[in-house]
Design brief:
176 residues; alpha/beta; five-stranded mixed beta sheet; two-stranded antiparallel sheet; 36% helix
């Protein structure tokens, strides 16, 4: 049996995603995720947001559970601009999916009931939509499954709850 470390699995996966056109970004915590979300939503919506406008977007995003957030992803938000006008903000382009911004990051720390560090996260327009938990070869997948469940209970809803937007969990040990 080939022994491959978790770090090697992560790097191989990230390299594959970069080869498919994903942008690799380095983020270590929620404040960096929020800055990236701000930049990606501005890019995706071809606009700029003031501090107050982005705070309104965060308030809109930070409500409801996982299913409510899945709906929020598909809907547009009517943002009240500082000048009194409204602008429809799109979180995901459903019809023209290739116009979304695809990014990959790893080892993001989220502090909730416990401090957790997630292996690989795929972001679309700055929102974490896919969480990948890797274990080195030879480790049972059940360990990764249990770890994702712990993350969900202990830290996904912490802060602005961005990880509650995750729509897909992937677990792998490099062989399965």
């Amino acid at each position: 049996m080939i022994i491959q470390s978790e770090q090697a699995l992560e790097e191989n996966l990230i390299d594959q995603l970069i080869g498919m056109g994903y942008e690799r970004i380095v983020m270590v915590d929620e404040p960096e995720m929020l800055r990236n979300l701000w930049e990606q939503l501005e890019k995706h919506n071809e606009t700029t947001f003031s501090d107050q406008e982005f705070e309104r977007i965060l308030n809109h995003l930070n409500k409801g559970g996982v299913y409510d957030r899945a709906k929020t992803l598909r809907d547009k938000m009517s943002l009240l601009r500082d000048d009194g006008t409204h602008k429809n903000i799109e979180f995901l382009s459903m019809n023209k999916w290739c116009q979304n911004q695809f990014q990959v990051t790893n080892q993001v720390t989220q502090v909730g009931e416990y401090k957790n560090r997630y292996d690989v996260t795929i972001l679309v327009n700055g929102l974490p939509l896919v969480q990948i938990e890797l274990k080195r070869r030879g480790i049972e997948l059940k360990e990764a499954f249990n770890q994702v469940n712990r993350y969900r209970r202990h830290s996904f809803a912490s802060g602005y709850g961005l990880y509650q937007f995750v729509q897909l969990f992937v677990i792998s040990n490099g062989g399965n």
